[in-house]
Amino acid sequence: MNGILYLEDGTVFYGKAFGKQGTAIGEVVFNTSMTGYQEILTDPSYAGQIVNMTYPLIGNYGTSSSFNQSKKIYAKGFVVKELCGKGSNYTNEEELNEFLKKMDTIALSGIDTRALTRKIRSCGAMKCIITSEELTIEEMESIIKNTEFGIEQVKEVSRTEIEHIKGSGPRVAVLDFGIKNNILENLKNLGCDLTIFPYDSTYEQIMKINPQGVFLSNGPGDPTSIPEVVEIVKKLVKVKPTFGICLGHQILSLAFGGKTYKLKFGHRGGNHGVYDIERDRAYITSQNHGYAVDPASLEGKDVVVTHINLNDNTVEGMKHETLPVFSVQFHPEGAPGPEDSAYLFDKFMDLMDNAVDAKAI
């Protein structure tokens, strides 16, 4: 079926619809990864967004349940230049088109994704409709004007019940803002005894398990939309070693009195260069965020910037000068390098071990 992509500034792209038939509304963003389309689609951090892939051929290795980062697709829609209808890989269980149908996700192929990406880079991320229905331009314009975006996204993706994953190592309280399966796997592989809490859990509920460390996960949207979480984190960092990733990093900055701001078009892909100031080394990282921490807002807050983005010099990591607390903006569980940034999980383990040793003295 024919499909249309309509941007809020009136720009129209024509393509071919696949996946679920219908209409999707969201914020259009672009991802520069060459592979990992299934992980991208099932990453809860993409809630509310229509993902435009810059790599021209998508679907060439099919899909596999082992690649899923959550129980469903949270992205609103998917846009590609060319869809490969036959996946060639020994892990392939289902073609991408069928996977998207099963996951109720609307997609378009045949779009000039390079032109769309250049549009987003010039004008910034914007509201978008993709549809296989016979909607007029006037109807799509009206839908965009009358649709609210980005409301309660963390609530949409977070667990609703506390979950325990038994391990032989330190007890870790994981605050779920939309956590990816790969992050939990990294913590499990280190032996951590994990208790995963919904985003709106209270300080008392978290402290009831007497965690040896606190992990703040990735997630979608604006960190200032969940001020109640920031207040809880303010208490947690004073008593427990804490590690934050992506949205967790932004929440930590707010907890220490910093500020965040929305990037023009965000960082999304598996090839983003980051400089680790302490190690004097550059890393290739996996990223997915639309907001960043204002470095000027951290001045005088006992917080030190530890990582810088090599493309635009935005803050990619920080640590507290006296408390056992640190965070990164990128996703260290991703393996574009491969596994370049896995040392950060070891750093978290060391912080928890040292905290236990200090109490024993």
Automatic annotation (TrEMBL):
In which domain of life is the source organism classified? Bacteria
Carbamoyl-phosphate synthase small subunit N-terminal domain location, by residue?
1-131
The EC number of this protein is 6.3.5.5
Keywords on this record? Amino-acid biosynthesis, Arginine biosynthesis, ATP-binding, Glutamine amidotransferase, Ligase, Nucleotide-binding, Pyrimidine biosynthesis
Q: Name one GO biological process term.
A: 'de novo' pyrimidine nucleobase biosynthetic process
Task: Indicate which residues the UniProt annotation says bind L-glutamine.
Answer: S45, G219, G221, L247, Q250, N288, G290, Y291
Give a yes or no for keyword S-adenosyl-L-methionine in this entry. Answer: no
ATP-binding keyword on record? yes
Region CPSase, annotated ranges: 1-170
Cite the active-site annotation.
C246, H331, E333
Catalysis: reaction(s): L-glutamine + H2O = L-glutamate + NH4(+); hydrogencarbonate + L-glutamine + 2 ATP + H2O = carbamoyl phosphate + L-glutamate + 2 ADP + phosphate + 2 H(+)
Q: What class of enzyme is it?
A: ligase
Q: In which pathway does it act?
A: Amino-acid biosynthesis; L-arginine biosynthesis; carbamoyl phosphate from bicarbonate: step 1/1; Pyrimidine metabolism; UMP biosynthesis via de novo pathway; (S)-dihydroorotate from bicarbonate: step 1/3
Transmembrane domains' residue ranges: none
Q: Name one Pfam family in it.
A: GATase
**Oligomer and partners:** Composed of two chains; the small (or glutamine) chain promotes the hydrolysis of glutamine to ammonia, which is used by the large (or ammonia) chain to synthesize carbamoyl phosphate. Tetramer of heterodimers (alpha,beta)4.
Similarity annotation? Belongs to the CarA family.
Protein name per its UniProtKB record: Carbamoyl phosphate synthase small chain
Organism from which the protein derives: Clostridium cellulovorans (strain ATCC 35296 / DSM 3052 / OCM 3 / 743B)
